[in-house]
Design goal:
heterodimer; A: alpha/beta; 4 strands; 67% helix; B: alpha/beta; six-stranded mixed β-sheet
C-alpha cells in the first residue's frame, strides 16, 4: 500500500508543482524577498542619514584667553587615540578671567551637544546627564594635555595577534547559529504560509470529492506538501543564484560567519534537511488548519495566528540558544516544530552528529503523524453531508 | 479505515456476483443521523438506481460505499474489498458537485483524473484525446476548463470518470444540469457501460430515469432504505390497476365489482371503471359482468408504475419532496441554459 500512496502523492505533487511554478503568481513569489530588501535598503539609508546628522555632535568651548584654543589643539592631537573618536570642538567665546558664562542659555539657543566653561585647571562640562557621563573623562584628558602643553607620554604597545580565542570562537558560533535560525525561520515563514490556502482551491473547485474517492487523503496531503517543498526549492535556488550574482557583480564582501562546529559542508547539508523538516512540520499543520477553511477570506483570517505561531516557535528556539544546557534548550530541541531550529543551532555549536540522527528520525516521525492526523481531521470534516433539514422536519418513510 | 464498527461481519463470505454489498450502514453528522441502517446489494453488471429526494441520504450512502467517509456502523464490500479505496483504480466516480481545475486544459484534466486511478500520464493523455474525439469534443482538447461551457466541462469530467475503464461506475445525480438531449446521450452511455459488463450505480431523484434504466433500485427516504431490489418487484408491491369500460352504468353485476371501484360515466352512457385487480383474479369478475349483461366494451390491466410504488413504499411526503426536487432542478436547468 505504501508504493500506492507514494504514487498517488506523486500525481498530486506533479500537478501542484506545475500549477504553481507555471503560474504568473510565482513570478511575484520569486520577487517576494526583494521587497523587504528594497524597503530595508531605503530605510537603512534614511536611518543612516538621520543618524549621521544626529551623531555630528559639537561641543562648544567658552574659556578665558587662549585656553579654549589649547583645548581644541589637545583634542586634535589626541582624537585618533580615542576609541570611537571624539566630538568636534568649537570655541564659541573667549571669556574674561573671573567672568561668568551662561552655558545653559547657549545650549538652549544653539545646536551644541555640550558646553565646556571654566578653566583648564577646573573645566565645567554643561550637558545632559548621559552626555556628561560619557564625555567627562574625555574632557579631563584633553584639559590635562592642554594644560601641560606637551604630548602625554604613551608607551607603545606591542601586539601579538592570535587567530581566535575560545570565547571569540564560541561567540562566533553563536552568531552563526543565530544566523542559521534566522534564515531557516525566514524561509519557512515565507513558504509554509502558502500551504494554508492550498486546499481551498480543491474545495472551491469541488474537485476534492473526486480526489477523496480516488486516493488516500494522506497521499493528497503528502503530495501537496512535497509539491510546495519542491516549489520552495526552486525559489531558494533562484534566490541563491540572485544573491550569488549580487556578490560577484555588485557587493564587495559577504558577511563572514564563524565556522560552525560541524564544519560548513555538513552545516549547510543539515540546514537543508532541517529546512525541509521545519517546512514539512509546519506545512502539515497549516495544511490541516487551512483544510478547515472554505474560502480565501477564512484563510486570511487564519494566517495571522499561523504567523504568530511561527514567531513563537522561532523565539523559543532563539531563547533556548541563550540558555545552553537548560531544560528550555531540551524542550526546544524535542518539541517537534521548534526542533529543526534548535538542532541547527546545535550543529553550529557542537560537533556531535548522533543527536542529529535522532532528531531527524523524531522529526520525520512527527511529520508522518501530523500528515496522517491532518488527513484524518480533514477527511472527517470536509466530506460532511448531512440531511438538508433537521431530522424532525425530514420526510419519514412510510 | 475500519469498515466495521460496532458489529461483527455477517457477510464475511460475500457473494462473488455482487459488485457492492452493504449492510446496516449508519452515518451521523454532529449527532444527526444522515443514514440509518442502509442495506444495498448491487449485482455485477447491473444498472442500479438509488432513488430518493434531496437530503434522503443518497450522497452520504454513495460516499460511504466509495470509502470517502467511513460509516459509524455497518459493513460494506465493494468489488470484493472491505476497503473501497484499495479498489479505487477499478471505480469511476462522478460526484454531484462537479469540479475540475479551471486552469488545466481539457485533455490534461482527463489525464490527471486517469493518473489518480493509476493510468500512466502519457497513456492518460493519449486516451483523453481519443475519448474527446469520440465524444465530439476534440476541438476543445487544448482549451482550459475555464474556457469551456458548463455542459462541455461536465462532459469532460464524465470522460475523466470513465477514462480508466472502471468495473464500477458510481454517478451521483448524473442527469442534473443536463438538457434533454444530453440526458438521452447519458442514458445511452450508461446502457453501453452495462453492456460491456461494468456495474453502474447512480443516484437520482427523477423516478422516470430510474424506471427507464435500472434493473434494480434502492428507495431511500429519511436515511432509511424501505425497499431495495428489482424494479419489477417494487412495482409488484402494488396490485395492478384494472380499467373497464361498460355500455351501461348500472345493474346487478355491480355487486361483483371490488369495493374500491371508481366510476366515470360518459355522455353516451358508457361507464369507465377503475379499481385494483382483486386477489381472486379477473376471471370471476368477467363471468359476473357477462352474466349480468354489463356490456363490456374494453378491459385493460395495468401494472403499477415506479412512481406509485415509490409513493406506496416511501410515503406521500417523500414522493412530494421528490417531485419538488425535480421541479426545482428543471427550473434551475432552464435558468442555467438561458
Amino acid at each position: 500500500m505504501i508504493p500506492e500512496r507514494l504514487r498517488a502523492a506523486w500525481v498530486i505533487a506533479r500537478r501542484d508543482f506545475v500549477a504553481v511554478v507555471f503560474s504568473k503568481a510565482f513570478i511575484f513569489f520569486l520577487l517576494g524577498p526583494l521587497f523587504p530588501i528594497i524597503v530595508g535598503f531605503f530605510a537603512g539609508m534614511i536611518g543612516a542619514s538621520v543618524q549621521h546628522d544626529l551623531d555630528k555632535a559639537v561641543i562648544g568651548i567658552a574659556m578665558p584667553a587662549q585656553q579654549g584654543d589649547q583645548l581644541v589643539a589637545a583634542r586634535a592631537a589626541m582624537v585618533d587615540k580615542m576609541p570611537g573618536g571624539a566630538p568636534d570642538f568649537e570655541v564659541i567665546a573667549r571669556t574674561e578671567p573671573g567672568a561668568t558664562f551662561d552655558a545653559r542659555a547657549v545650549l538652549k539657543r544653539r545646536q551644541l551637544a555640550a558646553v565646556v566653561t571654566g578653566t583648564l585647571d577646573a573645566p565645567v562640562l554643561t550637558a545632559p546627564q548621559g552626555r556628561a557621563d560619557e564625555w567627562r573623562g574625555m574632557i579631563a584628558l584633553f584639559a590635562a594635555r592642554a594644560r601641560s602643553g606637551e604630548p602625554v607620554a604613551m608607551p607603545a604597545v606591542r601586539t601579538d595577534v592570535v587567530v581566535t580565542t575560545a570565547a571569540h570562537e564560541h561567540n562566533g558560533q553563536v552568531v552563526t547559529a543565530q544566523a542559521g535560525q534566522l534564515l531557516l525561520f525566514l524561509l519557512t515563514m515565507l513558504l509554509a504560509g502558502m500551504v494554508l490556502s492550498n486546499l481551498v482551491e480543491e474545495k472551491a473547485n469541488k474537485i476534492i470529492e473526486v480526489l477523496a474517492a480516488s486516493i488516500p487523503m494522506d497521499a493528497l496531503f503528502l503530495g501537496k506538501l512535497f509539491a510546495m517543498l519542491a516549489v520552495s526549492m526552486v525559489g531558494i535556488a533562484v534566490w541563491g543564484c540572485g544573491y550569488g550574482m549580487m556578490v560577484v557583480f555588485g557587493m564587495r564582501s559577504i558577511p563572514l560567519l564563524a565556522t560552525p562546529a560541524v564544519g560548513w559542508p555538513l552545516f549547510l547539508g543539515l540546514g537543508f534537511v532541517y529546512f525541509a523538516m521545519a517546512y514539512l512540520l509546519l506545512g502539515s499543520m497549516f495544511l490541516a488548519i487551512g483544510g478547515m477553511a472554505n474560502t480565501v477570506r477564512e484563510v486570511q483570517t487564519l494566517s495571522m495566528p499561523a504567523t504568530m505561531l511561527q514567531l513563537i516557535v522561532f523565539f523559543l528556539a532563539s531563547f533556548a540558544l541563550s540558555r545552553p544546557g537548560t531544560v528550555l534548550e531540551t524542550v526546544a530541541q524535542v518539541f517537534p516544530i521548534s526542533s529543526p531550529y534548535a538542532m541547527l543551532a546545535y550543529a553550529a555549536e557542537h560537533s556531535a552528529l548522533m543527536p542529529h540522527v535522532l532528531a531527524l528520525a523524531w522529526q520525520g516521525l512527527c511529520v508522518v503523524l501530523m500528515v496522517r492526523g491532518g488527513a484524518l481531521l480533514f477527511r472527517r470534516s470536509v466530506m460532511k453531508s448531512g440531511p438538508a433539514k433537521p431530522r424532525r422536519n425530514k420526510v419519514q418513510p412510510a | 479505515m475500519a469498515s466495521f464498527v460496532g458489529e461483527t461481519s455477517a457477510m464475511g463470505n460475500a457473494a462473488p456476483d455482487l459488485a457492492i454489498e452493504a449492510k446496516g450502514l449508519v452515518k451521523r453528522f454532529d449527532g444527526t443521523i444522515a443514514v440509518d441502517g442502509v442495506d444495498i446489494s448491487v449485482p455485477r453488471g447491473a444498472i442500479y438506481g438509488v432513488l430518493g429526494p434531496n437530503g434522503a441520504g443518497k450522497t452520504t450512502t454513495l460516499r460511504m460505499l466509495l470509502g470517502i467517509i467511513d460509516p459509524d456502523q455497518g459493513y460494506r464490500r465493494v468489488l470484493g474489498s472491505e476497503r473501497p479505496t484499495e479498489v479505487a483504480r477499478r471505480i469511476g466516480y462522478l460526484p454531484e458537485e462537479r469540479g475540475l481545475y479551471p486552469s488545466m486544459k481539457a485533455f490534461e484534466a482527463i489525464a490527471f483524473l486517469a493518473a489518480l486511478r493509476g493510468v500512466p500520464l502519457a497513456e492518460g493523455r493519449r486516451r483523453a484525446r481519443q475519448m474527446l474525439d469520440e465524444y465530439g469534443l476534440g476541438h476543445a482538447a487544448d482549451r482550459q476548463i475555464r474556457q469551456l461551457s458548463k455542459g462541455m466541462a461536465q462532459q469532460v469530467q464524465l470522460i475523466g470518470t470513465l477514462i480508466h475503464n472502471p468495473d464500477l461506475v458510481v454517478l451521483d445525480e448524473p442527469f442534473s444540469g443536463l438538457d434533454a438531449l444530453n440526458q438521452g446521450r447519458l442514458e445511452q452511455l450508461i446502457r453501453s457501460l452495462a453492456a460491456r459488463g461494468a456495474t453502474v450505480l447512480f443516484s437520482t431523484h427523477v423516478i422516470a430515469h430510474a424506471e427507464r434504466m435500472c434493473d434494480q433500485v434502492a428507495i431511500i427516504a429519511g436515511g432509511k432504505v424501505p425497499f431495495a431490489g428489482p424494479v419489477d418487484v417494487a412495482r409488484d408491491r402494488l396490485r395492478p390497476q384494472v380499467r373497464l369500460e361498460t355500455r351501461v352504468a348500472d345493474g346487478g353485476w355491480r355487486a361483483a365489482l371490488p369495493a374500491d371501484a371508481r366510476c366515470d360515466v360518459k355522455a353516451g352512457g358508457n361507464a369507465f371503471w377503475y379499481f385494483t385487480l382483486p386477489e381472486t383474479g379477473v376471471e370471476p369478475l368477467l363471468r359476473a359482468l357477462i352474466e349480468g349483461n354489463a356490456g363490456i366494451l374494453s378491459l385493460s390491466i395495468e401494472r403499477a408504475g415506479l412512481h406509485d410504488a415509490f409513493v406506496a413504499i416511501a410515503g406521500e411526503a417523500a414522493a412530494r419532496a421528490l417531485e419538488e426536487n425535480r421541479e426545482e432542478v428543471e427550473a434551475t436547468g432552464r435558468k442555467g441554459r438561458r
